[in-house]
Amino acid sequence: MKAVQSVMALVMGVALFAGCDQSKEELDKTKVELAKVTAERDLMKGQIDKATQDAKDAQTKLTDAENKIKEADAKLATCQPAAAPVAETKPAAAASKKPSAAKPPAAPARDASAPAGTAANPVKLAPGNPGAGL
Questions:
Q1: 112 neighbors 121 (Cβ within 8 angstroms)
Q2: Is the model's pTM score more than 0.85?
């Protein structure tokens, strides 16, 4: 009977040892998978932290801009429009005593459809450029 028990114990030991090899492979695969998932989680956590900080910075900038707008509106409300310049009125008698400024002579009438440089269209021509000049 002892021999049968010894044989059974030996068979069970071999079965357990063979079973441990399979579970060890599974354990190693699971450890590798855990490492990958942990690295991915840490990466996503870092991205979320960065996005959260960016959102806080944007909110701060928005608040600052709104405060500046409120300050500018308050300054604008306190400002009064500039008074229109008052035109000086001179008596007509004083104006008649001064000789009026000489006006330049009126330009001669011209016909724009006539060729440039003719008597009907006395436009000066620039050398090398027949269409230019005054």
A1: yes
A2: no
